[in-house]
Amino acid sequence: MVARLIDEEPEQAYGYSRVALRLASRVAAVREAAGFAAYATQRYPEALAEFRAARRMTGGVELWPVMADCERGMGRPERALAMAGEAEVQKLDKAGQVEMRLVAAGARRDMGQLDAAIVTLQSPELASNAVQPWTARLRYAYADALLAADRETEAREWFAKAVEADKDGSTDASDRLAELDGVEFVDALADADADADAGNGNGAADAGTDEPAGNADGAEGAAARNPGDGAPAAASESATAETATPESSTGDDQDGGGRA
Prior knowledge:
The protein has 14 helices and no strands. The model is unreliable at 207-260 (pLDDT under 50). The chain is 62% helix and 0% strand.
């Protein structure tokens, strides 16, 4: 349930993860899922504690990059960089090493070291023409860093390369590329709503006055009152009852990862 909800309803996923923790806190998969739910809702100290607990139970290193990113989220980029230099990184598979590189580059940027972040992202994986699951995100991060360094021509090139690799739309590289090219997108739905509102205003004016149906003043008045109707609908509550009740930490598995 947590995995199904975490992308669309992260707060609800977090609520389910807390219930699962109460029922099976000694199961590594439950601790890991709870960590990702906390991470998705930016509860970084809690996420780090859960990831550490899961890692102690399994002995694996797969969570090392996301643990480092939790350090970034807690405002400790120097710790994330220190983790990028640990021996655990050499034990990661290729995908994990790319993730660690992305985290390290982000930590460099957090510290104001933009040029170092760009160098960190330069790698055989970035230069490769092969498309892997991480390729779009790696190219996107590189393009974003180049743009931040005012290297717009190079940034455009790499945003275009990110679009080529991003088959499932996991990044907004296409939007960033269009922005650099000066392309403006028009919300056709909003325009249709505006036209409908203007039409309704004409009808109301015709019914209530002796003016002819083509009276321009009536249409202009309706358009002024309803300029596109662009306000978004109110968001529905997504959190379950469990998320409304604060949870207390129990057991030795919570190892204080959230403390500075």
